[in-house]
Design goal:
The complex is a heterodimer of chains A (334) and B (509). Chain A has helices at residues 8-36, 39-42, 46-53, 75-82, 96-109, 128-143, 146-149, 199-214, 232-244, 256-259, 276-290, 305-327, and strands at residues 61-65, 86-90, 114-118, 218-223, 248-251. With 334 residues, chain A is α/β, with parallel strands linked by helices. Chain A has a five-stranded parallel β-sheet, with helices on both faces. Chain A is globular, with a radius of gyration of 22 Å. Chain B contains 19 helices and no strands. The chains are: A alpha/beta (334), B mainly alpha (509).
Chain lengths: 334, 509
């Protein structure tokens, strides 16, 4: 095809047509994702969609991070105990890019007073080039959602059966398995050494901190108890990071005795994550921090009646699971 | 940084193009070289030293050979030094552990004590490709078919041009070197043709090949769990994956180079329309075949040893046996080299030997074949025989790729044998294969994608120029075709949540 023979008008028409088609495609896929699909179809995008579907300006505290985030703090327990509205925008293996996207999504529809970052993701890296790839893809997807939801056309062929998007736990699910941690409970061995945070993650963290600052959001760092993921070297570096940015840093690994972690019963998978029994304790600990943030108790606000209803159901399920774990299980429960 | 990744497609390539275009004509070769070295550095970090030393060494060695004048021995010594050095480095980096493994096995067999520990070798990206290009250049200079190039930048670019770094094609100096330093501006036409070619490559790579990767990985990794029909399924799916991936990446590579106005050699010419194993290798990884033919097959064919054999056998055994012997002498190093070049493992050597045997069978049966057609009166080029030969070649290709992709030679043999047990053809549709990491929708995309690629190949085979034909169509049809290609990649591409990025297969060689 001789490009010279194509007039400027035609070329411009082609480009405009392409942009229009991309916008129409993006609108269509985004609408479909928001309104028709469950978590199976959405895969890891479900966490973002769930957050987008939360009622506008109802969340006061947003938690972001990887699986350590959604296994350590339960928004429903926080609601029940304090009346603060919290949402966990965590994803399994969340990367710093995804963390940034989650924060941007949260800030689009909510005005949180505080954002809590579970710090494990700061040490997750897939190499600079892969992270760059992810960064570009995330940016492209935020501008044109067709890049993010492009494969949802598959639902026209495969009808996913009975998969509603679970909105009940506000990003937290009850996990009642027990696989004890049998290593040393004193895994945070004193040292002045530090484990460096990958450079790209530091840059992305800087953007997150800046975004919070611009939006007047208090940023807090916390590390959930996890002998598998945390060491004193990481603690030292994270503490220094917090001090560099003048942030509060809560390392639950340093407070496992005070929190009352029982490594025989409170871990889901040999010290990697908390189960519901451990999460109940870490959530209670986190509540003491939240109480210092001047948040609002909305339990008596009729606009939040739905939260009370959800909390009631949650409480029944969580109490049963905790009782089962603490009551009987010796060794492996499930 | 694979050629199908966003950092390459939306950052590196556009940035290099912009800087190339805004630079003066005389500076453009430096821009290309700097970007090529940056690309290499991004992929291999400090191992770029190998490329730099190779570039300098080859450039100097070529010049030294040129200056050696009539001193044949000196020229030969310099050629041996250069080519030997190149293959010495390649052997050391890629094959040390393979040879240590052999020595250890032999020692263990003789009851010797401690084994030699394996070494952790870091191999620079594309060493197998640039080594062949460098050796080819030195041999051309040695044979006097190519003047040694005094321009270091051109030699360095020839060896390190970034679109070729990972997977070739393996170019010949006389074909590409001067284009690299021509400094021609990027034209609208080049941009259009290049981008179209890149899109077509992306379609093959991320719509088809990356989807097939899931199933191929499972079948070959857990090969012991599969038998019967699942083995041919493994062979076919891998062959499709490899073709879609390698030819797709070549489209991206040739498209990228084409934007700069550099015509790289084609690596594929509708290989699945081949009617014999030898024809397949003239259509598949063409640049490797050309290299082997030019720098191994012909030199061996015209060597003193082959001439001696021809004289001796011609008198003693006649034309037929002489031809068989000559073919064996020339093809053996070619196919052993081909196998070993792909990797330091016995299954690659087996792959080479497999094709050596097949090609020898072709040579041996040639007179019988001719006689068959003559006696039966069958038309050699009749539709039935053509289809039969194509299908027979497919069988040969699929079997070869089964061993090529196997985790080891032992695994390959085990897979081949288990293919004859418990055939269970229903596993093709009862969910065993269809639900192996892919869903119905994925299979639909794969089959439709393969059909589209094969339709395009068929049209090319029939000398139908798709681009020229499209150019004659009305505007809406042309737009629809391009939008169709763009959105096919965007919507049906196996990328994003739920898909794992798949590394380039040939970059591993």
């Amino acid at each position: 095809m001789d490009v010279k023979k194509i007039s400027i008008k035609e070329k411009a028409g082609f480009a405009i047509g392409l942009v229009v088609l991309l916008l129409i495609g993006s609108f269509f896929f985004n609408y479909y994702a928001m309104n028709s699909l469950g978590s199976h179809s959405l895969k890891r995008r479900a966490a973002v969609v769930r957050l987008q579907k939360e009622k506008k300006d109802t969340i006061e505290v947003l938690i972001i991070g990887d699986s350590e985030s959604y296994t350590t703090v339960s928004p429903m327990q926080v609601w029940k105990d304090t009346g603060y509205t919290m949402y966990v925008g965590g994803q399994s293996g969340q990367t710093m890019n995804e963390m940034l996207t989650m924060l941007e999504t949260g800030l689009d529809t909510q005005h949180p007073k505080a954002v809590l970052i579970e710090t494990n993701a700061l040490y997750r890296t897939s190499g600079n080039l892969n992270q760059l790839q992810e960064m570009i893809a995330t940016k492209a997807a935020s501008i044109l959602p067709i890049f993010q939801y492009h494969d949802l056309w598959k639902n026209a062929i495969i009808k996913p059966a009975g998969e509603a998007l679970n909105m009940a736990g506000k990003g937290f699910d009850i996990r009642d398995s027990v696989k004890p941690y049998t290593g040393s409970p004193d895994y945070m061995k004193q040292t002045s050494k530090e484990q460096e945070i990958p450079r790209v993650n530091q840059i992305l963290f800087d953007r997150i901190a800046e975004l919070c600052r611009q939006n007047g959001v208090s940023l807090i760092l916390y590390s959930g108890p996890s002998p598998v993921n945390y060491t004193m070297e990481k603690h030292n570096r994270l503490a220094r990071l917090a001090s560099q940015y003048d942030l509060q840093y809560i390392d639950m690994n340093m407070e496992t005795k005070e929190i009352g972690i029982d490594w025989n019963k409170d871990t889901l998978d040999r010290g990697d994550h908390m189960n519901i029994s451990g999460a109940e304790k870490t959530t209670a600990y986190m509540e003491t921090v939240l109480k210092t943030l001047n948040l609002t108790d909305r339990r008596k606000d009729p606009a939040y009646q739905e939260w009370n209803d959800l909390a009631e159901t949650y409480q029944k399920q969580a109490s049963g699971a905790i009782a089962r774990i603490r009551g009987g299980a010796q060794g492996e429960n499930k | 940084m694979g050629y199908n990744t966003l950092p390459y497609l939306v950052l590196f390539l556009p940035l290099s193009l912009i800087i190339y275009q805004v630079s003066g004509r005389n500076n453009r070769k430096y821009v290309l070289l700097i970007f090529s070295w940056i690309y290499f550095f991004l992929c291999s970090k400090k191992l770029i030293i190998y490329l730099l030393l190779t570039s300098a060494g080859v450039w100097l060695d070529g010049l030294a050979m040129q200056k050696s004048g009539g001193r044949k021995h000196l020229k030969t010594a310099l050629a041996v030094l250069g080519v030997g050095g190149l293959f010495g480095v390649l052997l050391y980096l890629k094959y040390t552990n393979f040879f240590i493994g052999i020595v250890n096995t032999v020692m263990a067999g003789r009851g010797a004590g401690a084994a030699i520990p394996l070494r952790h070798m870091l191999v620079p990206i594309g060493i197998s490709f640039y080594t062949l290009e460098a050796a080819g250049y030195l041999l051309e200079v040695y044979w006097g078919r190519q003047e040694a190039d005094p321009d270091f930048v051109r030699v360095a670019l020839f060896l390190g041009f970034f679109p070729q770094t990972m997977e070739g094609p393996i170019a010949r100096y006389q074909d590409t070197a001067h284009q690299l330093t021509g400094g021609k501006p990027v034209t609208e036409q080049q941009l259009f043709d290049g981008v179209t070619r890149i899109l077509w490559g992306m379609f093959k790579k991320i719509v088809i090949a990356d989807r097939l990767s899931l199933i191929v990985t499972e079948l070959y990794r857990n090969y012991a769990a599969y038998n019967g029909i699942m083995i041919p399924a493994a062979a076919v799916t891998y062959t499709m994956q490899l073709y879609m991936e390698f030819s797709g990446v070549m489209d991206i590579v040739i498209g990228s180079a084409g934007i700069f106005g550099i015509a790289l050699p084609e690596n594929f010419r509708q290989p699945f329309f081949s009617q014999s194993a030898s024809e397949f290798w003239r259509r598949w990884h063409i640049s490797l075949g050309v290299w082997l033919k030019t720098y191994l097959f012909y030199p061996v064919t015209t060597s003193g040893m082959t001439k001696k054999w021809n004289r001796f056998a011609g008198k003693k055994f006649g034309k037929y046996i002489t031809k068989i012997g000559t073919s064996f002498l020339a093809l053996t190093p070619v196919w052993l080299f081909n196998g070993l070049w792909h990797g330091a493992s016995w299954h690659y050597i087996f792959y080479g030997v497999y094709y050596l045997v097949l090609l020898m069978i072709e040579v041996i049966l040639e007179p019988a074949k001719k006689s068959f057609y003559k006696k039966t009166g069958f038309k050699k080029n009749g539709r039935f025989w053509t289809v039969f030969r194509i299908l027979r070649t497919w069988l040969i290709i699929f079997t070869g790729e089964l061993f090529f992709r196997a985790e080891s030679l032992r695994a390959g043999i085990a897979m081949f044998r288990s293919g004859f047990h418990h055939i269970g053809i229903q596993r093709l549709w009862d969910g065993t294969l269809l639900k192996m990491g892919l869903d119905q929708a994925d299979w639909l995309v794969i089959l439709a994608g393969i059909a589209v690629v094969f339709a395009a190949d068929l049209l090319k085979e029939k000398n139908f120029d798709i681009k020229a034909s499209l150019a004659k169509k009305s505007l809406p049809v042309r737009w629809a075709a391009f939008y169709g290609l763009i959105f096919a990649v965007l919507i049906f591409g196996a990328y994003g949540p739920g898909y794992q990025p798949v590394d380039l297969i040939y970059a591993g060689f």
